[in-house]
Amino acid sequence: MENIRCLIIGGGPAGYTAAIYASRAGLNPVVYEGMEPGGQLTTTTIVENFPGFPEGVDANQLMTDMRAQAARFGADIRRGTVTSVDFSSRPFKLTIDSDTLIEAQAVIIATGATAKYLGLPSEQEFRGMGVSACATCDGFFYRKKDVAVVGGGDTACEEATYLANLCNKVYMIVRRDVFRASQAMQDKVRNTPNIEILWNCNTQEILGDASGVTGARLVRKDGKVFDIRIDGFFLAIGHHPNSDVFKEFIDTDELGYIVTSGKSSRTNVEGVFAAGDVQDPSFRQAITAAASGCKAALEVEKFLLSH
C-alpha cells in the first residue's frame, strides 16, 4: 500500500497553493484533483480581483498556471476522487475511486463546494436542456435570447451581468425584496438596462417541451402566479461544501462546512487540515482560498516535523 507524507484532496486555488508550499518544503505532496480540476474558478471567465493582474486574468489560465507551478516544484498531481476515509488513527487510510487504498501521514482537505439546485422535478427534467448552474459555461448558447437567473447574491449578480452581454433580456428572480450582494454588484445590475429584477418571487416550475426550456412559472410573495417566457434558466443560489465523505470523522457546521480551530486550518482530527471553500462559508474567494491553502501547508510542515 502506498504511504504518502502529505496528501492534498482537491485541485482548486486552495489545493494547488497548498501543493506549491508543501513541495517547496520537501513534503513530496500528492494531489488528487477530484472531478473538477481547477475548482469553481474554471466556471468563470476573467478574474479581475486577483492581485498581480491589473488587466484581469483568464480564470482557466490562472488555474492552469497554479497547477503547473505546483508540478514544477515536484507535486505529484493525479486525477481521482476520494470516495471513503478512515481518520480513526494515523497513518490515515483513504480509498480513491472506490478501488485504490492509500495511507497518508497528513491530509489537507481542499475539496471546495458545488452549486445548489432548487430541487424541482422539472429542473432535473430540463437539466442540460436549458437549465444550467454555470452561465459562463452555457451562456453562449443563449445569444440574443431571453434567460433567467435565480438568486440575489454576488454570484447571481455576476451571472446576470455576464449573460446581459450575450442575451436579449435577463430576468433576475429574487425571493426577497433586497439583494444579498455587495453594493458594487448591486449597482452593476441596476445599471444594466436589459436586466429586469423580479422581487419577492419563487420558482414554482420550469416550463418546456421536447426542445428544452420555454419558460418558468413564478409565484410572488402575495400568492400571485405568473409565467415568463425564457430559453435558459440559470441557478445561482449558493453552494454545498464537498465535505460529506469526511463527516464521520471531521466536525462540520450546520451547513456542512468543515470547522477549523480559530485562525488555523486544523480540524478536530490531529493531522487533518482543511482549506478553501470547504471550510469557508463567508468569503469564498480565490484569493482567500489560496491563502488558506498556504496556511494549511505551513501547518502540515510543522505537524510532520513534530511527529
Question: How are the SSEs placed, and which strands pair?
Answer:
Elements (H helix, E strand, L loop, with lengths): L1 E8 L3 H12 L5 E3 L13 E2 L9 E2 H14 L3 E3 L3 E5 L5 E5 L3 E10 L3 E3 L5 H5 L5 E2 L2 H4 L7 E5 L3 H11 L4 E5 L9 H8 L4 E4 L2 E9 L2 E9 L4 E5 L2 E4 L3 E3 L30 E3 L11 H21 L1
Parallel strand pairs: 1-2, 1-8, 2-5, 8-19, 10-17, 11-12, 11-17, 12-13
Antiparallel strand pairs: 3-4, 6-7, 7-8, 9-18, 14-15, 15-16
Helix pairs in contact: 1-2, 1-7, 5-6
Structural account:
The longest helix is centred in the C-terminal third of the chain and has 21 residues, at 286-306. The strands form five sheets. Strands 1, 2, 5, 6, 7, 8 and 19 form a seven-stranded mixed sheet that branches. The chain has a five-stranded parallel sheet with strand order 10-17-11-12-13, with helices on one face. Strands 14-15-16 form a three-stranded antiparallel sheet. The chain folds into two domains: 2-114 and 239-306, FAD/NAD(P)-binding domain (3-Layer(bba) Sandwich), CATH 3.50.50.60; 117-235, FAD/NAD(P)-binding domain (3-Layer(bba) Sandwich). The protein has seven helices and 19 strands. Helix 1 packs parallel to helix 2 (59-72), helix 1 packs parallel to helix 7 (286-306) and helix 5 packs parallel to helix 6. The protein has helices spanning 13-24, 59-72, 121-125, 135-138, 154-164, 183-190, 286-306, and strands spanning 2-9, 30-32, 46-47, 57-58, 76-78, 82-86, 92-96, 100-109, 113-115, 131-132, 146-150, 169-173, 195-198, 201-209, 212-220, 225-229, 232-235, 239-241, 272-274. The chain is of the alpha/beta class. Helix content is 24%, strand content 29%.
